[in-house]
Amino acid sequence: MGGCFSKPKPVELKIEVVLPEKERGKEELSASGKGSPRAYQGNGTARHFHTEERLPAPHPYPGAQDCVEAAICHVKDLENGQMREVELGWGKVLLVKDNGEFHALGHKCPHYGAPLVKGVLSRGRVRCPWHGACFNIGTGDLEDFPGLDSLHKFQVKIEKEKVYVRASKQALQLQRRTKVMAKCISPSAGHSSSTNVLIVGAGAAGLVCAETLRQEGFSDRIVLCTLDRHLPYDRPKLSKSLDAQPEQLALRPKEFFRAYGIEVLTEAQVVTVDVRNKKVVFKDGFKLEYSKLLLAPGSSPKMLSCKGKEVENVFTIRTPEDANRVVRLARGRNAVVVGAGFLGMEVAAYLTEKAHSVSVVELEETPFRRFLGERVGRALMKMFENNRVKFYMQTEVSELRAQEGKLKEVVLKSSKVVRADVCVVGIGAVPATGFLRQSSINLDSRGFIPVNKMMQTNVPGVFAAGDAVTFPLTWRNNRKVNIPHWQMAHAQGRVAAQNMLAQEAEISTVPYLWTAMFGKSLRYAGYGEGFDDVIIQGDLEELKFVAFYTKGDEVIAVASMNYDPIVSKVAEVLASGRAIRKREVELFVLHSKTGDMSWLTGKGS
């Protein structure tokens, strides 16, 4: 695919590729993202560019001595549509039989290491049971998110009714494959005031956009700018594991950005976007021209507006530094969390083992009520109460009281006074789009950027993705929605990149999210806003259940705990374009004591 976008003067570009096998290294070796960024003089101001230095030399393909080959089963051992994990001595592979053909792939999801054998095989791909990432069984390529890497695909041959698999030892141990990417061969990289692609925001949408461009052979300049001081990191982990250090959260090591010429501008705040002259201005006065622009600024947490809001030790969780500080202050002390949504509840769960006491303040009568409904919310609330969390429901904070400037008490509107040494505020977020107000890029009344299915804004050449956009959701009759999920940001970043390259891709992914509390995971797929009924199969008290959210006679979302891979199964059905009817679910709950899910893969209702 084309190396670069059209410019006034056509330049001849050749594409070079690096085999990324060893260069990626293991995930644990992720660099801290500090490194020694080059200070770059632009318009008289020093800028921090993480630029390309030395590229790793390409690694040769593995020789025979680096490979292992073994007969792993008889052809009749697997039925069509079956998957099996098999041992090859140096590691396991996932063996799949589909339409009479055998395929061998990496057996773990590169995202968080889920065993794919427990996932869902459908339409030529396997979907991860934990977080819904999808991999093509013919190529191992990642086809739906979350995560960045693909699976290795291994050679399969059939001899005398036996199935043989041949694999490189290194691939068996790595369990992930970074797609081959172009390098940046633009002569101006790192030292000019214009770039071909500028990406504002380095979350999942921004990073996936940059990587997709390189995967598709684009070899011109890409600049990724972020308010953060770190290279792109795994933000959902912040509230689930508040102790995590930036280097443990890094999505890619800094060598990766160097190798593929993706320049990252840290602590860089865009203050204006001039779409007529295709130029952005940074807070320090630095100006950068662009040819294509992706806006992926994410959102800003809402703050409390009550009396005493400026006292010390009141936090929103936005960065690793915020999260680390909260844990430090909460150890052996009293913590109060305001807001019983995903972020607040994850933080409360994490702090129970660290803090002397944890209290949650919430306006609704049960946690997650709008998202998961009354019954599921109550079951989760009980799990928290069993872990010594105290709830103050249907009230809000009226005052934060300090002693010597530091937080001492949280006063509620119900006139209760709660002791507090640290307070975490998780009451929602607003799109971080203030810098666009003076531009001609459309914003809606709430500050979101409306885009079409190709992630295009109203301005040609300007795309937007992630938490700050509203877009048409295909399988909910193109209803314009905002879905601030990690997985959705990945998918939108990819679609934006494809359309920068004029590939005419459209967003069609089924939303998928997860939360983890007290070592238990809740998975969720679909878009449940406006549900009018919840049908529950299983045992809520035991936290082993699946909940189907319906509107009229259609299932619009599903949530589960300890019921894998039901959520991935439902996501796969919805992704195939088939509607699931309320009646099917009611019959299943009525007759199924076994939890049999075969009805879901039936053809239509």
What structural class do the secondary elements suggest? alpha+beta
CATH class of the largest domain: Alpha Beta
Number of domains: 4
Overall strand count:
39
Oligomer kind: single chain
Mean residue pLDDT = 89
Range of strand content: 25-35%
CATH architecture of the largest domain: 3-Layer(bba) Sandwich
> Distance between termini?
41 Å
Name of the CATH superfamily of the largest domain: FAD/NAD(P)-binding domain
What are the segments in which pLDDT stays under 50 over at least 5 consecutive residues?
A: 1-62
Helical fraction equals 10-25%
* CATH-defined topology of the largest domain: FAD/NAD(P)-binding domain
Give the CA-based shape: globular
**How does the major sheet shape up?**
9 strands, mixed
What is the radius of gyration?
Answer: 25 Å
- Distinct helical segment count: 11
Identify the notable features of this structure and list them briefly.
single chain; 605 residues; alpha+beta; Rieske Iron-sulfur Protein; FAD/NAD(P)-binding domain; 4 domains; 9-stranded mixed sheet; 6-stranded antiparallel sheet; 11 helices; 18% helix; disordered N terminus; apoptosis; metal ion binding; 2Fe-2S; metal-binding; FAD/NAD-linked_Rdtase_dimer_sf
Task: Write structural notes for this entry.
- The protein has 605 residues and is an alpha+beta fold.
- It has four domains: 67-178, 3-layer Sandwich (Rieske Iron-sulfur Protein); 194-300 and 432-501, FAD/NAD(P)-binding domain (3-Layer(bba) Sandwich); 314-427, 3-Layer(bba) Sandwich (FAD/NAD(P)-binding domain); 519-600, Enolase-like, domain 1.
- 18% of the residues lie in helices and 32% in strands.
- The strands form nine sheets. Strands 2, 3, 15, 16, 17, 18, 19, 20 and 32 form a nine-stranded mixed beta sheet that branches. A six-stranded antiparallel beta sheet has the order 4-13-12-7-6-5. Strands 22-29-23-24-25 form a five-stranded parallel beta sheet.
- Strand 12 and strand 13 (162-168) form a beta hairpin.
